[in-house]
Write a structure and sequence with these properties.
The chain is an alpha/beta fold. The chain folds into 2 domains: 122 residues, Response regulator (Rossmann fold, 3-Layer(aba) Sandwich), CATH 3.40.50; 106 residues, Winged helix-like DNA-binding domain superfamily/Winged helix DNA-binding domain (Arc Repressor Mutant, subunit A, Orthogonal Bundle), CATH 1.10.10. Helix content is 37%, strand content 19%. The protein has a 5-stranded parallel beta sheet with strand order 2-1-3-4-5, sandwiched between helices. β3, α3 and β4 form a beta-alpha-beta unit. The protein is globular.
């Protein structure tokens, strides 16, 4: 698999080990010791995937990811020794697609890299049969991982696109967190609390007021419902409940 992988890791020995295993798969790598170096490199070298540590000198991984996600939908795989729930949830909240804990198996890491790249390439490869779901001022190009608001492109990570695409494919139907998790994550790995994190992230990108969502409703006791027609999205007081808090 030919792909460009940006490794942002301040421990050179670890970065070299990851690069060695990726090279065996035919992947090209670039090592950046800091987030600042990585941002400079991205200006002239576009990666297909980013492997990101959190604890970095200078700008940390979360700050890099927040800045990176404003312009790029490239898959990001966090690899970190920080494994507390709040760190994993924060990583997903800032836009990571997966989270791998240190220490890790290099072979497992490479397998996850391959899976993320295949998923991203699969979405792009279907662009010729592009279909569009329109809601409010937005247009979701359902086969190419693109969300537009008028002529403006709204960056989506691969996982954000999958969640939004699944919701948009089932308009008006309440979907439980379990249903969304099984459809998008396919029970491969992860934590179902990630569903609420991604719903919050999508609301921040779609809603004028994320606390009072018009497109992605919370349905009490059932889950979430996607509304193509936002004018009819308001719930009755008896059905509504506040959106889950982002931890």
């Amino acid at each position: 698999m030919k792909a460009r992988i940006l490794i942002i890791e301040d421990v050179k020995e670890l970065a070299d080990l990851v690069a060695l295993y990726l090279a065996k798969e035919g992947m090209e790598t670039f090592w950046a010791e800091t987030a600042e170096i990585a941002l400079e490199r991205i200006e002239s070298w576009t990666p297909d995937l980013v492997i990101l540590d959190i604890n970095l000198p200078g700008m940390d991984g979360f700050q890099f990811l927040d800045r990176f996600r404003k312009a790029h939908a490239t898959p990001v795989l966090i690899v970190s020794a920080r494994t507390a729930d709040e760190d994993i949830i924060a990583g997903l909240g800032y836009g990571a697609d997966e989270f791998v804990s240190k220490p890790f198996s290099p072979r497992v890491l490479v397998a996850r890299v391959r899976a993320l790249i295949r998923r991203a390439e699969g979405s792009q490869g279907q662009a010729e049969s592009e279909e569009c779901v329109c809601f409010g001022p937005y247009a979701l190009l359902t086969n190419s991982c693109i969300l537009k608001k008028g002529s403006e492109r709204i960056p989506l990570s691969a996982r954000e696109y999958e969640v939004l695409s699944f919701l948009a494919a089932n308009p008006g139907r309440p979907l439980s967190p379990e249903t969304i998790y099984n459809a998008v994550w396919k029970n491969a790995y992860g934590d179902m609390t990630a569903v609420a994190v991604y719903i919050q992230r999508l609301r921040k990108k779609l809603e004028d007021d994320p606390a009072s969502p018009r497109y992605i409703e919370t349905v009490f006791g059932m889950g979430y419902r996607f509304c193509l027609d936002a004018s009819g999205a308001a719930e009755s007081p008896s059905d509504a409940m506040p959106p889950p808090k982002e931890e």
